[in-house]
Amino acid sequence: MKYNLKSVNRGSSPKDNIWFSSEAVLKLQKAQKELLWLLNRDYNIHSVIELVGNHYQFSTRQRNALQRATSPKTKCRNRLLKCLHPVSASKDCLYIDGFNLIITLEVAISRGIILLCNDGTIRDIAGLRGTYKIIDKTDAVLNIIGKEFSNLSVPKANFFLDSAVSNSGRLGAFILEHSKEWNIPVEVELSSKVDSILSKMPRIVTSDSIILDSCTSWFNIAKKIIDDYIPSAHIINLTSY
């Protein structure tokens, strides 16, 4: 199957150099401390994001970054306890939140903003909201995933894609085409209930906070791939403590 892959930088915004400048990141780090203080006392995330965001006059994109990068300490602790060491990836099948992993890595390769969150995960702020197109970075990402799976001796991988997202079927076919070079069994499942399916399973690959809070166990594969293969990634760390 042939694809005409358009060269696109996933997850970038023209004002990112302002919103995530060194000065702006220092302000975001200060805001995260205040946000975390409130979250640890069970304040509602949406209310306190509005409160803190208005106080610092953050843009919508900065507020999204602050929200995605910050979780209360109880949730961070519980997620960490369920996170498996990469060496365990060789023991059984991985169940992969496909769009979550692939888009994050596409943004990393594009040098878009990615966040080192206070629960140890890497998250993006691409904000595609149900729309997706295969780009040139998708090809590179799937090559890297295949290399990482080989290094980890992953025996099998199942990708789950949200069927409601545009081009999910095309991405599924693209994954299967690439996986022929991986020398392991790979399956792709399209579903309208990906989150609820993965939330009940072990050995999940995702950074989705809802899934992480409910699944039995998970791997922090996106961060490992970025550490191993994408040294040029533009990582913003808001956790200064």
TrEMBL record:
<feature type="domain" description="DUF5616">
    <location>
        <begin position="90"/>
        <end position="223"/>
    </location>
</feature>
<protein>
    <recommendedName>
        <fullName>DUF434 domain-containing protein</fullName>
    </recommendedName>
</protein>
<dbReference type="Pfam" id="PF18481">
    <property type="entry name" value="DUF5616"/>
</dbReference>
<feature type="domain" description="DUF434">
    <location>
        <begin position="27"/>
        <end position="80"/>
    </location>
</feature>
<dbReference type="InterPro" id="IPR041652">
    <property type="entry name" value="DUF5616"/>
</dbReference>
<dbReference type="InterPro" id="IPR007368">
    <property type="entry name" value="DUF434"/>
</dbReference>
<dbReference type="Pfam" id="PF04256">
    <property type="entry name" value="DUF434"/>
</dbReference>
